[in-house]
């Protein structure tokens, strides 16, 4: 596993992490530019035989520098809000490579996307389809749209990140989608000519992907036979990564083969929306040990990073490998509960984790933190947002300054001015 060994030596892309922590402070997100480039490159290579485009799911890590890096490698964006649209456009991603997903697009967001001229909407409800028609008609434009199918397959991932089962809020059943195509003449400002799916995230098994693709492919063939031409099939994101040494994740080649096999004979454009797979393993969260504490039953390692910086363990019981950066082999191994300073029991990165003994002020790297780390962080407990840096060839660039306590509270006001709406 490249990401463990790369930091065990205390260096990441040739950058000395101890010196970096001393310069920039902790907690600190550190991302490897070469590893991100390498992931995009291998996905592109795997998809090379198809007319396929990568639409990076911005929610995984929307930092402007990361988006610029991905845009430079030819990726477009999958967005789910007006904020993500602005991020993507400002990072230089062409509107013609931006798809807009999400179950609750507001009128204001739809208007922003129409005015920017995005590639297409991934439509998730009848009400949304009507809104796009109304708002596009008002502006005299034609909006390209795909219907997000809910294929009702079990993605076999954590319940909170599974999206393709009938009980989930996402997408529509095929019967509804069929009706939308049949009545598409009633919506002259929407060109409904695409299909979309996304069954869940952190998929470690391609079988559910194949099952969902088969359902979507059968529907595409049925639509073509009924005279509807389909220009775009978007297979969503979800490709899983290795969070734990020894875990196996599907590779890009097998994923591409599954897509190619299911969509054999399709002559339109295929889109993929990976988020995690492109950035998760390229990122670490560098944190300093505040103190070691022996409780009555457990031994705690209290870090200066917390659930507000990286929420995944507390939200999904997610596993992240934690690597101490001190290298002396003689240390005894202990079972630690690795926790943050936030005032909640859920502020726990790992429970009873066997690790070499750590002492106050030493550094640890929490691995696999490049996706859904900084992007899901908050200032809970009034902890300013962590800094983020990009590393490459022994150098680093700060791509997000550490938030100052002043900036954290700058938008708040005492209630001295009272208005009536
Ligand atoms: N496309 C759509 C429509 C999505 O909803 C998502 C993720 C993606 C693409 C990208 O999925 P990925 O390739 O990253 O698996 N916060 C959770 C993950 C939530 C994913 C939400 N949707 C976590 O930390 O595990």
Write down the CATH topology of the largest domain: TIM Barrel
Gap from first CA to last CA:
57 Å
Helix content: 25-40%
The pLDDT mean sits at: 95
Weakly predicted, low-confidence segments: none
- Fourth-level CATH superfamily of the largest domain: Alanine racemase
Give the number of domains: 2
Number of strands: 19
Largest sheet: 9 strands, mixed
User: What is the tally of helical segments?
Assistant: 13
Which ligands occur here?
Answer: ligand LLP
Strand content: 15-25%
What is the CATH architecture annotation of the largest domain? Answer: Alpha-Beta Barrel
Judged by helices, strands and strand pairing, the structural class is alpha/beta
Give the overall shape: globular
CATH class of the largest domain, named: Alpha Beta
Whole-angstrom Rg: 23 Å
Question: Overview of this structure, please?
Answer:
This protein is of the alpha/beta class. It has two domains: 4-30 and 280-408, Lyase, Ornithine Decarboxylase, Chain A, domain 1; 102-272, Alanine racemase (TIM Barrel, Alpha-Beta Barrel), CATH 3.20.20.10. 29% of the residues lie in helices and 23% in strands. It has helices spanning 2-8, 17-24, 33-46, 64-72, 82-90, 107-116, 126-139, 174-182, 207-225, 252-262, 276-279, 312-316, 405-409; strands at 11-12, 15-16, 28-32, 52-57, 76-79, 98-100, 120-123, 143-148, 190-196, 232-234, 269-272, 283-294, 299-303, 322-324, 333-339, 348-356, 363-366, 387-392, 395-400. Strands 3, 12, 13, 14, 15, 16, 17, 18 and 19 form a nine-stranded mixed β-sheet that branches. Strands 4-5-6-7-8-9-10-11 form an eight-stranded parallel barrel, surrounded by four helices. Strand 15 (333-339) and strand 16 form a beta hairpin. Helix 6 crosses helix 7 (126-139). The model has no long low-confidence stretch (mean pLDDT 95). The structure holds ligand LLP. Ligand LLP is lined by residues 57, 60, 78, 101, 161, 198, 201-202, 236-239, 273-277, 312, 316, 372, 376.
